[in-house]
């Protein structure tokens, strides 16, 4: 699949942007604070309806504007037209001119994997971040997982509300515990199946990038050891004191092991960066495997942080996506764009909220920009 | 800018308390009413008063009725051994439209919802226990919603009814009649598979 057209109105520093993108490798060049990442953010927004910078809709509105619009045309199995408008008072999302009623019907229209500096938190950060990594992947590949997760969360919140009440009501708590356990068991079995499938992909990606002999392994660490219901019952006393549900898949983790040692503790900063990169590459490859087409890759300023060797390890993934008819969008400053990809790249110059095609790509034709001519080199 | 006269503002505020009426709709309705034929407004307020005064909730089953106890509760043609528990009075009407259920009803008045502060004492559960224990009831059928709270309410009721010597059942989850599999969501399909029956 690829994003053929992107339209932005009052989005971040773009008052108006109309751009067309062919499949292939797109590089956004420009000085800092010109709006390179904002384009990636908009593409990711169309894919997931969230910002990968972890901010709410309000922050994506251009300063002084009432609301933002982001729209796109996705070409995959058929052509899909996405339109999203967001303001503090009104939000609209349409797919092929029809309002989207259920999130689960929308997600998957555009699939994207983002590589950014925050990925480092996958290795260093709290278990929550690794759970979100699993959940996002499962939501994109396993039908029904998202609604399962939403139901589990509601059961959990209801149960926690009961535990916070001053008078204990065990019968009511049991009523919600049943649902929590049923839904929780389904979540755990989905995660238990996923992790061993991701682990070898991450190991290979890690090998390619690090060119070390160390083996990366992912291990699912469920909070529940054997029987969810029984273990919950045994923790009832402590739950009463702490007034919250102490056990369940909402406390799961995925442990990252490098040669059987916990990566979070026993690795250098550079090694952590490599592991994070490997996880994201594994995510992209898993999605390609399941859906038959690679996801759109969004790479935000990651190249600058990698040494030549690690960059060389990443390049095959990018070329692979490129060859399979996929699309890669990457931001870079002038100094550190990956010249090793040279001729295949379509270059764009980003300059305070405008986008201009720079040089003709060797493979793909030059994308046409309304009102802006492509300049030759 | 001239603001609306005070009586209109009060009318907007009153209408805005109705379900499904936002500030804009409330304003539109209020402006319509204050400019409408006085007879129409008088009739409207009369029928509203009349309806409100005449309609009670049945003290036995909790459904809407003019007479006490309601027709459904006194009818001799209905099977007194079957008791169907629903969340709202509207659900009784839906089930009655289907015409297949010939037992009696019990309206809970909602479902357990700790996040909204709705507990067992806010629902007609004590009355249900009494009915299930005292009368000739042999089976209690739970016809509640299939969301997390509806399911939890079902489990809770089942545990409360343990001592009443009744069979407690739940209506099936499954596919809507007359539609193909392609329109069903994944959860419905997996529930329908779990609840399969031999032919």
Task: List the SSEs and their pairings.
The complex is a heterodimer of chains A (377) and B (199).
Chain A: E1 2-11, E2 14-20, E3 24-29, H1 36-48, E4 68-76, E5 78-86, E6 91-95, E7 98-99, H2 103-106, E8 112-115, H3 121-124, H4 127-141, H5 145-164, H6 170-210, E9 216-221, H7 228-234, H8 236-242, E10 253-258, E11 261-262, H9 263-266, H10 269-291, E12 296-300, H11 308-323, E13 327-332, E14 345-351, E15 354-357
Parallel strand pairs in A: 3-13, 3-14, 8-12, 12-13
Antiparallel strand pairs in A: 1-2, 1-4, 4-5, 5-6, 6-7, 9-10, 10-11, 14-15
Helix pairs in contact in A: 5-6, 6-10, 6-11
Chain B: H1 6-15, H2 23-35, H3 38-54, E1 56-57, E2 64-65, H4 71-74, E3 82-86, H5 89-98, E4 104-107, H6 125-134, E5 139-142, H7 148-160, E6 167-170, H8 186-194
Parallel strand pairs in B: 3-4, 3-5, 5-6
Antiparallel strand pairs in B: 1-2
Helix pairs in contact in B: 1-2
Walk me through what this model shows:
- The complex is a heterodimer of chains A (377) and B (199).
- Chain A is an alpha/beta fold.
- In chain A, 41% of the residues lie in helices and 23% in strands.
- In chain A, the strands form 3 sheets. Chain A has a 6-stranded antiparallel sheet, covered by helices on one side. In chain A, strands 8-12-13-3-14-15 form a 6-stranded mixed sheet, sandwiched between helices. A 3-stranded antiparallel sheet of chain A has the order 9-10-11.
- In chain A, helix 11 links the parallel strand 12 and strand 13.
- Chain B contains 8 helices and 6 strands.
- Chain B folds into 2 domains: 6-54, Orthogonal Bundle (Helicase, Ruva Protein, domain 3); 64-198, Dna Topoisomerase Vi A Subunit, Chain: A, domain 2.
- Chain B has helices spanning 6-15, 23-35, 38-54, 71-74, 89-98, 125-134, 148-160, 186-194; strands at residues 56-57, 64-65, 82-86, 104-107, 139-142, 167-170.
- A 4-stranded parallel sheet of chain B has the order 4-3-5-6.
- With 199 residues, chain B is α/β, with parallel strands linked by helices.
- Classes of the chains: A alpha/beta (377), B alpha/beta (199).
- At the A-B interface, helix 5 and helix 6 of A face helix 7 and helix 8 of B.
């Amino acid at each position: 699949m690829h994003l053929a057209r992107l339209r932005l109105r009052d989005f971040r520093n773009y008052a108006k942007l109309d751009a067309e993108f062919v499949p292939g490798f797109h590089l956004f060049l420009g000085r800092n604070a010109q709006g390179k990442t904002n384009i990636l953010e908009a593409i990711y927004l169309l894919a997931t309806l969230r910002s990968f910078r972890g901010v709410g809709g309000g922050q994506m509105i251009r300063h002084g504007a009432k609301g933002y619009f982001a729209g796109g045309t996705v070409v995959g199995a058929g052509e899909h037209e996405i339109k999203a408008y967001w303001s503090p008072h009104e939000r609209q999302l349409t797919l092929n001119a029809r309002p989207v009623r259920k999130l689960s019907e929308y997600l998957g229209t555009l699939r994207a994997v983002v590589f950014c500096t925050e990925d480092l938190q996958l290795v260093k950060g709290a278990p929550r971040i690794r759970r979100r990594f699993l959940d996002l992947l499962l939501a994109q590949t396993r039908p029904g997982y998202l609604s399962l997760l939403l139901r589990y969360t509601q059961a959990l919140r209801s149960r926690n509300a009961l535990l916070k009440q001053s008078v204990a009501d065990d019968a009511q708590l049991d009523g919600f515990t049943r649902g929590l356990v049923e839904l929780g068991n389904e979540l755990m079995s989905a995660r238990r199946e996923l992790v061993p499938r991701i682990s070898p992909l991450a190991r290979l990606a890690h090998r390619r990038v690090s060119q070390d002999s160390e083996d990366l392994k992912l291990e699912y660490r469920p909070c529940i050891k054997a029987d969810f219901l029984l273990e919950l019952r045994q923790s009832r006393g402590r739950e009463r004191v702490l007034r919250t549900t102490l056990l369940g898949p909402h406390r799961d983790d995925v442990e990252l092991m490098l040669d059987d040692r916990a990566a979070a503790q026993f690795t250098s900063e550079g090694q952590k960066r490599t592991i994070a990169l490997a996880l994201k590459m594994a995510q992209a490859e898993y999605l390609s495997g399941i859906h038959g087409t690679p996801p759109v890759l969004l790479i935000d300023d990651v190249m600058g942080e990698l040494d030549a060797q690690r960059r060389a390890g990443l390049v095959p993934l990018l070329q692979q996506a490129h060859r399979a008819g996929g699309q890669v969008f990457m931001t870079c400053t002038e100094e550190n764009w990956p010249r090793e990809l040279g001729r295949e790249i379509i270059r764009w110059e980003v300059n305070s909220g405008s986008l201009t095609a720079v040089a003709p790509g060797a493979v793909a034709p030059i994308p046409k920009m309304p009102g802006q001519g492509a300049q030759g080199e | 800018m001239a603001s609306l006269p005070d009586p209109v503002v009060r009318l907007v505020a009153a209408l805005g308390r109705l379900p499904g009426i936002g500030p804009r709709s409330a304003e539109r309705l209020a402006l319509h009413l204050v400019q409408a034929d006085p007879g129409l407004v008088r009739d409207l307020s009369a029928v509203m008063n009349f309806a409100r005064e005449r309609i009670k909730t049945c003290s036995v089953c909790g459904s809407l009725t003019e007479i006490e106890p309601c027709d459904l509760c006194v009818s001799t043609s209905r099977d007194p051994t079957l008791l169907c528990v629903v969340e709202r009075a509207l659900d009784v009407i839906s089930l009655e439209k289907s015409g297949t259920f010939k037992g009696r009803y019990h309206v809970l008045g909602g479902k357990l919802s700790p996040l909204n502060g709705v507990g067992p004492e806010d629902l007609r559960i004590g009355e249900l226990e009494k009915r299930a224990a005292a009368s000739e009831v042999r089976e209690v059928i739970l016809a509640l919603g299939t969301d997390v709270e509806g399911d939890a309410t079902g489990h809770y009721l089942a545990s409360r009814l343990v001592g009443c010597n009744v069979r407690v059942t739940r209506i099936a989850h499954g596919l809507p009649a007359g539609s193909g599999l392609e329109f069903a969501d994944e959860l419905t399909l997996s529930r329908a598979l779990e609840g399969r029956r031999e032919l």
